[in-house]
Amino acid sequence: EKGGYEHFMLKEIFEQPNSIADSMRGRLDAANGTLTLGGIYEYSQALINARRIIVLACGTSWHSGLVAEYLFEEYCRIPVEVEYASEFRYRNPVIHEGDIVIAISQSGETADTLAAIELAKSKGAIILGIVNVVGSSISRVTHEGAYLHTGPEIGVASTKAFTGQLSVLTMIALSVAHKKGTITQTRYKELLVELARIPAKIKEVLDNNAVVEEIAERFKDAKNFIYLGRGYNFPVALEGALKLKEISYIHAEGYPAAEMKHGPIALIDEEMPVVFIATRDSSYDKVVSNIQEVKARKGVVIAVVTKGDALIPALADYIIEVPPCEEALMPLISVIPLQLLSYHIAVMRGCNVDQPRNLAKSVTVE
Ligand code: M6R
Angle at the Cα of 59 (from 303 to 53), degrees rounded to 5? Predict the structure, then answer.
């Protein structure tokens, strides 16, 4: 069942090179520069013409929706609003006939997401589903959609479904951008080639497991954690914090790194581990300044950095390296060490990682 792993969560973390490849199989053909998403066919023109996109989701799926916001805005030039399904459904939201809704759900059974979809649908929105569980309630109420094809996820903490969602959302965004002409042919092809390299890069990160385990040993008794990132790595910071709190019961918060100075900076002292997702990208210099601000207040910094970076390793207390990667695809890679970190900390604290207290795999109550 667990394929020789101690827990489903660990198995699912280590499955990601394969599950990501599965999510791309038959869809991504990097050699010929094509993307084929059979599930989104009838409404592909509506997506190209969309004046805005509303994303509806909860929890980890909401985090992948945030990454989609960056992707669709950057490459398709379509404004995106990412909504907690539970808030959206109760506030009399503005929905226009023909609006595009992307609903994201691993289980396809989340009560709030389902109800928010039905509300949007009743007002004439087109609903596209990004779902893992085939034949689930959400997959049945959507107009069209794309399954993740990542296989069943058993651990309550979502891992391979998150990266599967990112993979599918990236393929949809790039396909729309290509058809719409908001991306150059060269850039499009480059990104497809890079996308095809993701499984191998994830494998490289997983080979660093022992480094992450040592860091977990050092911080397993911490009372609080902060996770910081900017741009595409901001949702990864939120996801890292959620993973840690749900399975290890350590209080953790994720923030956009620049928001730190508007409040959370007051928490920083010698005891407080601050996890920076600080890979080489367009906000790198800004993140370096944020790390310096934390060090100036005696905070302890754990940084996820791009292999070969010399500057941040000189500033941070602990380093986890990930291979270089396109900025827009980095969340697929940078989240992996954070999944491992929360896993190891939870195991060291004796927690039930696959079935954390008070949580269920699908939240079918509102
Ligand atoms: O099945 P869904 O994707 O709709 O579930 C949404 C959340 O309940 C889920 O992501 C939850 O936050 C996970 N336990 C996170 O690991």
Answer: 100
Distance CA 8, CA 155 (A): 5
Q: How many CB atoms lie within 10 A of CB 208?
A: 16
d(CA 279, CA 281): 6
Joined tokens for residue 215: 């860091």
Q: Which residues pair with 273 in a beta bridge?
A: 300
Burial (Cβ within 10 Å: 0-12, 13-18, ≥19) of residue 113: buried
pLDDT in tens, 150-177: 999 999 999 999 999 999 999 999 999 9
Cα separation, 108 vs 130, in Å, equals 9
Q: What is the pTM of this model?
A: 0.97
Distance 330 CA to ligand 1 centre (A): 21
Strand order in the sheet with 224-229: 251-256, 224-229, 273-277, 300-306, 318-322
pLDDT confidence of 1, banded at 50, 70, 90?
confident
Question: Which structure tokens are listed for 228?
Answer: 């910081």
The interface predicted TM-score of the complex, written ipTM, equals 0.99
Q: How far is the CA of 153 from the centre of ligand 1 (A)?
A: 11
Taking Cα atoms as reference points, which of 230, 241, 75, 63 lies closest to residue 163? 63
Q: Which of 7, 12, 56, 61 for a ligand 1 pocket mutation test, highest count of atoms within 8 Å of Cβ?
A: 61
Nearest residue to 157 via CA among 10, 296, 24, 331: 10
Residues with a known catalytic role: 361
Hey, CA dihedral for 240, 245, 250, 254, is it positive or negative?
positive
* CA–CA separation, 217 and 215 (whole Å): 5
Q: Which residues line ligand 1 (CB under 6 A)?
A: 58-61, 105-107, 110, 113, 156-158, 242, 246, 359, 362-363
Q: What is the DSSP secondary structure assignment for residue 317, as one 8-state letter?
A: S
Measure the CA–CA gap between 37 and 70, rounded to whole angstroms: 20
CB–CB of 366/112 below 8 Å?
A: yes
